Structure formats: structure tokens, C-alpha cells
């Protein structure tokens, strides 16, 4: 690989037709940081406002007068921007193209007109059920068009949606429902993934038996697989029955730009997931603009993002960005490797997908299957590829470029976070030369910086912690119900700056290379798992005394979950208990948090004050026992030898 290119210049044929070429990027970037008000004022005009904003940016990252407000006196409705305003020009255009899990089942097209009608019917039904502005609706659905319908119906009536990923357990649903005091849940009988059924309704039933969930008055159930489910009247209602007979039009709620649009829970360093709060105006401006610019969007594109709506990528780049732009977005219910590992490429051919956006973990898993499943398909329709969720290793980047894209398609490696709402660092495909493994350059208005441990800003070529010096319209506004936690989590480590939690290197050309999380968050297949969450799930087991969880390099997942477990005195460790504990974590948090390796730890390395030294545990998990560093400050250095002896053998 040593002679493989490290620079992939912008393709002249692509640049010739691109929305933004190099000169325009440089010009617009300079303008965006010189005069953000003028820049974002202009960009804000891409939306339909019920009342046009007269103020654009109102921001301070300083503790004393902390505030983040964009377009603060503007009024709009997100669903109107995603639906109504397209009806005159593209009412018959496909908004959502649904490809089911089972390829023998028919695909379905939902036009903008139909989507509008469906959203209005559900919005009317929700109002009828007593849901209004500011109420929280939990959405726990598979990847079916109803997921987008549900989100937009909430937006239409000013309800705040909280989507919970289908891979979360009843406990996790209950925590999230309880935290935001949801009044209504929209779910389905079952989900389908790779031919396997996911008991969504049964999970909701189990969640609602748990304490803290009694705010839920209604559960709407989409009939998807037709499986028999328990319907508890009057709480549970069939979705079709409540929507049937509702009017196809629904007066949209006038929302202030800073009114909440949604909450999305994400893991941090502490045990409790945070309800990341996004608001209406700035978020929609930002996701629609980045979606258009980063993906060089044209009206005839068939755009496919393989994420699930349970994650922010699905919110911003399946639902809100693409629909605000009047694009055709593919909604895929299935998985990359079922019925076989050419499914992605077959779907691309079947629907003539032009833009394909996926995660490095999927690319690595498919790369492992060799070129044949790719080469058996045409993929001629593709013109642009994207990745998101974790650093992509150059080898996977090149395979994606050379094999999947036949060397024709630029790749946009997009760095961002649940908290950032939209893409912050990414090449623009007609403007910025790519380097495999680098997210390259900041988007308009984004001012990244690298700081050292003392918060000193590093200039030029450097490696440090990635911060952002100024706001952008899509930035999260609060942690739901705990504004102080928002300020403390993101603006306290480096006062006056937003701290991303990521490490990063900047090379001599000013390119950014994200090196991964520097906090206690593990990125498993692009999904964020807090080590503290897994630890508290483990210690909740009656036989576990103590647990410490770290990430370790994993060929496919990027990072795997490595758990060290100390049993309570007298309990015997064995393989059966190991399996039981792994299953326990799946049950407690959900399959997303399944430990990849569990090691018995007679003792954990602790300082004399009792703090677990994770640095040491990480090195053992990485199988690098020669890099443990100084262990002399440990209360009992001998525990390390035992852990090293019994470490995972790759
Ligand atoms: C974390 C955010 C952004 C939506 C999906 C994940 C990592 C994300 C990249 C990338 C390197 C990346 C970071 C970030 N990450 N994209 N292109 N290159 N790392 O959202 O669950 O909020 O996770 O994902 O570590 O902090 P999320």
C-alpha cells in the first residue's frame, strides 16, 4: 500500500458541474467567518419563513452571558419547509423511496403530495389525541416511511419528537421516555432487519411497566409485519385506525426559530444519556444547506443515506435536510449483508442511486467479502460517495473509491456529531482535494481549532483536542431539562470554546484528521456508547461487584467494547456466567451495547484514592502490555500482572 496515492485531487469533470468549486469555497469561507451575520442571513433565505428573521446571530460561549440563538425572531414550520413549499413545483416527485428488508417485497414510492397528506392526517390525529406544541412524542419505529411521517407530523403541530433507535431495550426506552416525560409513543408491531424480527411493540409494553413512564397516555401502533401483539385498551391504538378519516390538510403551528424541534439522546462520559436539544430555524437552515453543498445536490439525484432515523444522521440527512431540499431520499429497512453482501450495490442499481452515504464500519465489513459481490453489479448511476460516524482507515477509503466507485466518484468524509446537528468538517466534492482518512476542511462558518491540555490554541501543524471557536446555526441549544449540564459538558473544559470530545491532528496543508474520542465514549460501528452506561448495567447484576469498560481496536466495528468484571466474593467465574453477563447488558441497554469481550478481573488497577486507571486497562485491551507506563502509583500494582496474563488474545 505504500505507493498508494495520498492525495486525490478534485476531478475536473466533477468540478466543472459542481455547485461549489475551489475558488468559490475559498471566497465563501472567508466571507462566512468575516461576516457571519451577512453570510447566514443570506443562507437563511433558502427557507420559507412565516415571519422573516431580522436578527441572525446572537451568540456568546462565555459563562457570564452564555447564549446561542440564531434567527431568533423568525417564525416558520419545519414540515411546511419539507413538504408544502414543494407541492407547486414537485408534488409528483418521489420524496421517499422505500426499499424493504426483504428484496422480494415491492419497493414503494411516496410522492411529496402523498407525504404531505400522510403527515397532515397523522398531525390531525395527534392533535385529536391531545398532543400540542411543546409536548414530547417518542418514536420507536423501524426504517419505514412512517418514521419520517411521524417526525414531520410532530413538527407540524409543534410537538417535540424523541426518536429512540430500535436497537435499544425496554430499559433504555423507559429512561428516555421518563427523562422527557413523553405523552405518546409511536411504534410498530415489529421491525425487520436481515430477515429477523424485532419485537418493538413488546419492548414498548415492557418499558411502560417500568417506573417513571406513567406520563405516556397513548401508544400508536403501525401494523408492519402483521404479527399479533398485545393491545392494551384504551392506551394502545392502531395507527391506521386513528389516522383514517383525518383530513389531508392540517394548519401548521407557527414556530419561533428557537422553539424545540427534537430531542435525541446520546451517550456521554457519565452514565445518563443526554437529551440533545435541537431547535427549528437554525437547524433546518444548516442541515438543508450542508446537504445541498456537501452532496452537491441536483434535482434529479436519487440520494441514499444508509443510517437509521434513530441516529442524528437519519434526522439530518434522511429526513430534514433532503426533504427541505425537495430531494428524493431512499429509506432502507434492511442490512448490508442480507440476503447477501451485495445488497447495497443491488439496491443502488435497482433504484439508480446517484449519491450514497454510509459508515466506515459497513465499508470494512463489505470489503472483507472481497470485490466479487460489488463487481457483480453495475453502480453506473453513482456519482458521489460519502462516509460518516468514525474515522475511516485509508485502506477502506481506497476500496470504497476504487472498487465501489470504480475510481469515478469523489468521497466526502463528513465529520460531525449529534450535538452539531449537521456536518462541520468535510470536503466539498468539487472544491477540496481528498486525502484518504482526513475529513479535510471546515464547512462555511465553522472555525475549528486544536488546543493542548491547558487550553492553549495550537497553530499550524499540530495535534490536540478539537474545539470550535464560534457557533453555527445547527448547533444543539441545550440538554433537555438540564441547561447547566449543557454548559458544563461542552463549554467548561476550555472556557469560551465548544469542546467536541474528539482528538485531532492538522497537517501542513491545514487538513483535519480526527483521531477519535478522548473521553470515556466508545465509538462502536459509528454508534456512541458511554463506558459508564455499560459499567452501571454490569454492576446492576447481582453477581457483579465492580466493572470497568474501555474501547479497543476492532477490525470491523472500529472500536469494540471490552469489559473487565470483578465478581462479588464467593461467586465462581465461568463461561456460562460470561454469556449471562453479555446477555444481561443486551437486555439492560440493548443489542447496540453488547460487550465484545469480557474479562474476569480479580482486581482492578486503582490509584490509592480509589480511581480506576483506565489508561492501563485500555493498553491491556489493546494487547499492548509493554506500554502500560508507570504503574507504581497503583494501590496494588500486582493486579495488573494478573490482568495482563489473562488478556484477550487477538
Ligand atoms: C462522534 C459523534 C455524525 C453522525 C454520526 C455519529 C465520530 C463522526 C466522523 C468522521 C471521524 C467521526 C467522532 C464524533 N465521528 N464522524 N467522519 N471521522 N470521526 O454521531 O453518535 O454523535 O458521534 O463520531 O468521534 O465525536 P455521534
UniProtKB/TrEMBL annotation:
Reported cofactor(s): Mg(2+)
Encoding gene per record: acsA
A matching Pfam family: ACAS_N
Gene Ontology cellular-component terms listed: cytosol
Residues that bind Mg(2+): 539, 541, 544
Domain AMP-binding enzyme C-terminal, chain residue ranges per copy: 533-611
NCBIfam families xref list: Ac_CoA_lig_AcsA (TIGR02188), PRK00174.1 (NF001208)
Protein name: Acetyl-coenzyme A synthetase
